[in-house]
Amino acid sequence: MGDSMQRHATVYSNAKASYDVEGIRADFPILGRLMNRKPLAYLDNAATSQKPVQVIESIDRYYNEYNANVYRGVYRISEEATLAYENARKKIAQLINAKYPSEIIFVRGTTEAINLVAHSWGRQNIGLGESIMITEMEHHSNIVPWQLLAREKTAQLKYVGVTDDARLDQEDFHRHLDNRGVRLFAVTHVSNVLGTINPIREMIREAHSHNCRVVVDAAQSVPHMPVDVQDLDCDFLAFSGHKMCGPTGIGVLYGKRELLEKMEPYQSGGEMIREVHLYESTYKDPPFRFEAGTTDIAGAIGLGTAVDYLSKIGFRNVRSHERELTSYALDKLQRIKQIRIFGPEESPMRAGVISFNLADVHAHDMASLLDEDGVAVRSGHHCAQPLMERLGIESTTRASLYLYNTEAEIDRLVESIGRAGRVFKI
Ligand code: C6P
């Protein structure tokens, strides 16, 4: 082993030694629940994550101690609420290394963030005959808004295909860009079905050299690994709080300041205006221009606490833990007869999302049998029907991992799939 590899191995094993998964689990009350007298093995983290007691208590504290609307009151608890809300924005800016907190817009989740870009930037910048490029591995949230925009503007949708080894087809990508007229590329950082981590940094650079802006769907990346928007140089990036230990109903759109400043509002109403007259209004600067009405104050504060919680553990450690568990799971699952596992081989470019089918057992039947053993996984098309079509299937069963999962839970998943195989006589 060369010197540099030895150094890497030492650093990695130190991180492993200090990763206290049992301590982390103790922070999540729900993980103590019994299902059919078996402990809950929660393996549906791509759908939503569980919440640590620190986040639950911080939301509780807001409602118990300083519940008030933000920006609107000069009294003490309203000022406390405003401060906590704006602190959450700063924490998120720091988390993804945004240049300014004003580049962070609170929205309901990834879906709303992408819709905001489509309705505002998209309507202003996509014209007749121009193209929007997306990929075959997108979630419906990163497909349907672009279909609607393309129809409205008589623009074209171009798809980057998925290769047989579950990666984005780089030839398609370059061909579409070289054909000119592609104004926007909307791409997922991590596939919620395949677990593929896409090489978006390089793709963003290439898109920019063709005068094409890039929206990154980071719903499955920001919760699991370090993400740096300045390093990526993406124009927009969207993610959801509920997939990263935060509450539901809150998410984030990051946008470069110079783009946000030129964008029209998405929704309109209270607190996004500067002045309203009978027939016209002027708007505040971002982010307030895009946060009309009373926002999810408790949600933003809870998400801020989730960011504190995950940052204390360290996103590099979370990623290492998940990578190790994924490789453990793939190794065990591959030994099951007649199993088809989707996604790339274990590699630095694979996240902790493992979709599979066992012979011709329907994914819902598989998930129901696993549930009898207390193993919670998702089954279905995972809101990615074009990808299902590409794979020639209707559905998969999907196990998705997070910071609190253990090898023992993977063992239970594998045993339970074995039991399902016996039930279906495979
Ligand atoms: N995927 C899953 O089980 P929202 O619902 O707005 O928080 O996130 C939408 C979304 C967008 N992009 C990707 C890549 C996603 O995975 C999701 C949510 C969940 O896979 C629920 S369908």
Order of strands across the widest beta sheet?
4-10-9-8-7-5-6
**CATH structural architecture of the largest domain:** 3-Layer(aba) Sandwich
> What's the overall geometry?
globular
The chain-level mean pLDDT equals 95
Stretches where pLDDT is under 50 for at least 5 consecutive residues are 1-14
Here the CATH topology of the largest domain equals Aspartate Aminotransferase, domain 2
Largest sheet: 7 strands, mixed
Give the beta-strand count: 17
User: What is the helical fraction, as a range of percent?
Assistant: 40-55%
| Level-1 CATH class name of the largest domain | Alpha Beta
Class by alpha and beta content: alpha/beta
Spatial gap, N to C terminus = 43 Å
**What value does the Rg take, in angstroms?**
22 Å
3D structure, described in words:
The protein is an alpha/beta fold. The chain folds into two domains: 3-51 and 314-423, Aspartate Aminotransferase, domain 1 (Alpha-Beta Complex), CATH 3.90.1150.10; 59-311, Aspartate Aminotransferase, domain 2, CATH 3.40.640.10. The protein is built from 15 helices and 17 strands. It has helices at 3-18, 21-26, 53-65, 76-95, 110-125, 144-153, 170-178, 200-209, 229-232, 257-260, 297-313, 315-333, 363-372, 385-391, 407-423; strands at residues 34-35, 38-39, 41-42, 104-107, 131-135, 156-160, 182-188, 213-217, 236-240, 251-255, 273-276, 281-283, 339-341, 353-358, 375-376, 378-380, 396-400. β8, α9 (229-232) and β9 (236-240) form a beta-alpha-beta unit. The longest helix has 20 residues, at 76-95. The chain is globular. The site of ligand C6P has 17 residues, from α5.
